[in-house]
Amino acid sequence: MKLFLDTCDVECVNSAAKTGLISGVTTNPTLAKKAGRSDYRQALKEMCDISGLSSISAQVKEDQNAEARWKPNRSPSSG
């Protein structure tokens, strides 16, 4: 099992990575704003420099909320 931390708080990521309990990080521009990071790219660069992470997954565009982007698969007959 792999555990991923969902944040843009670089200090939190660094601390968690040192424990060896997380495999990586998922983040997005909204989390960057919540963490007080005005430069999202810089935060990502800092996370890339943290040893012990095997994966960083970053959403790169914040122009719509998740509900507006999500469109369920529908077959033509499902209406």
Structure description:
- This protein has 79 residues and is α/β, with parallel strands linked by helices.
- It has helices spanning 10-19, 29-34, 40-48, 66-69, and strands at residues 4-6, 24-27, 55-58.
- It has a three-stranded parallel beta sheet.
Break the fold down into its secondary structure elements and pairings.
Layout: E1 4-6, H1 10-19, E2 24-27, H2 29-34, H3 40-48, E3 55-58, H4 66-69
Parallel strand pairs: 1-2, 2-3
Outline of the structure:
The protein has helices spanning 10-19, 29-34, 40-48, 66-69; strands spanning 4-6, 24-27, 55-58. It is α/β, with parallel strands linked by helices and 79 residues long.
